[in-house]
Design brief:
single chain; alpha/beta; Aspartate Aminotransferase, domain 2; seven-stranded mixed beta sheet; 13 helices
């Protein structure tokens, strides 16, 4: 017996992008101390007040089946948050609560794509994007955003890619690059979506981590609320990665179909986790602000540590919890650099190639260790890169 062609097609014949992570974990189990800068997960557990809210709810008996689309109170709180942040009206009927942002993406593409439909995505992209589209029977259509342009997508290339497509997926603040799409980019994206009659899927799980100004959602632009699905989550904003609490914010009619898929996929999210999420949205603003301040400070640690380094070039991040480092001066691919860095310096980072061709020769560094360890690791990484550049020059291959 063979597995389905659908499941075999998810990787598209490529690698998962997690090989360096798995190798680092094996080394850690063998007792090797690794500075792990791979996964975008807070180094501390979920804050205690959130866990207390979760515990109180569970002990009060909220452990039975929940409403598939989410509790009315949580959906209302999510809608209120979105309306306050964007200025675009939203209500509970626009919201479906999901098992994290990843499930929200899958639910959305199941509701917007038919088999064979193209969904456009921008490279660099989060690792799961192409596989999520393929899992629904859709076809990823990829268009680049270059480092030299601050990882802003080229609007002419984007428009060409969108011809004949059904949906466009964007992510700002961006994982892996930390870029935030400019007003010009977002206005251009909206115009392309209107002109080509596209669904816009806007992954905004880092909306609270914008360093150079307020987050701007394309849902608030003229004519976009009726064609935009916003992906949200409490994983990053409130340190709830393991709790798996996300949502879709979509036009009301589409939300009904997302709920139908959720009924057959997860049958709802545990009520005690939803209650913890409701506590976050009502009482957890201080936690969210504190976590955001941590990553903004670490962004500055990275900028200061790498200032003046010629072998490693940093694309200054405008948001999220990562920095993207250009190591092409070493002559190595991002993957080869990451593998050698792990073996020789015991520092684990994600190779840029995990996130698409436009990130080749780059590294994604998650700012998920304390400030002192981050500075030490980045300093050692830069020293390692300088050694490679010197070796390359001596060999006459620079």
């Amino acid at each position: 017996m063979e597995p389905s062609s659908r499941i075999r097609a998810i990787l598209g014949g490529g690698a998962s992008g997690w090989e360096v992570v798995h190798r680092a974990r094996r080394m850690q189990r063998q007792g090797v101390r690794i500075s792990d800068l791979t996964v975008g997960q807070h180094e501390d557990p979920t804050p205690a007040p959130i866990l207390e809210a979760m515990h109180t709810s569970a002990m009060a008996g909220n452990t039975r089946y929940s409403d598939v689309a989410g509790s009315p109170e949580l959906r209302a709180a999510i809608a209120e948050r979105a309306a306050a942040a964007t200025g675009a009206p939203a209500g509970p009927a626009n919201v479906v609560v999901t098992a994290g942002g990843q499930a929200a993406l899958l639910h959305t593409f199941m509701a917007t794509l038919d088999a064979g439909d193209a969904a456009v995505m921008i490279d660099p992209y989060y690792v799961t994007y192409p596989g999520t589209i393929r899992a629904t029977g859709g076809v990823p259509r990829i268009t680049p955003a270059r480092a030299e342009a601050g990882f802003q997508p080229d609007l002419d290339a984007l428009e060409a890619a969108c011809t004949g497509a059904r949906a466009l997926l964007i992510n700002s603040p961006n994982n892996p690059t930390g870029a935030i799409y400019s007003d010009e980019t977002l206005d251009g994206v909206a115009e392309i979506c209107r002109r080509h009659d596209l669904w816009l899927i806007s992954d905004e799980v880092y909306d609270g981590m914008a360093w150079d100004g307020p987050h701007r959602s394309p849902r608030a632009l003229p004519g976009m609320a009726e064609r935009t699905v916003v992906i949200g989550s409490l994983s990053k904003s409130h340190g709830m990665t393991g709790s798996r609490l996300g949502w879709t914010l979509a036009p009301e009619e589409l939300s009904r179909f997302i709920e139908i898929y959720a009924l057959n996929a997860t049958y709802g999210i545990p009520g005690f986790i939803q209650d913890a999420g409701l506590w976050c949205l009502r009482e957890g603003a201080g936690i969210e602000a504190g976590l955001a301040a941590t990553f903004r400070r670490r962004r500055d640690v990275a900028l200061n540590t790498l200032a003046g380094r010629q072998s490693v070039r940093l694309s200054p991040p405008q948001g999220a919890m990562y920095v993207m480092l250009d190591v092409r001066a070493t002559g190595l691919s991002g993957l080869a650099f990451a593998e050698r860095l792990l073996e020789e310096a015991h520092i684990a980072v994600m190779p840029g190639e995990s996130f698409g061709a436009s990130a080749a020769g780059h590294l994604r560094v998650a700012l998920t260790v304390d400030d002192a360890e981050l500075a030490r690791a980045l300093g050692r990484l830069a020293d390692f890169a300088e050694t490679l550049v010197a070796e390359r020059a001596e060999a006459g291959t620079a």
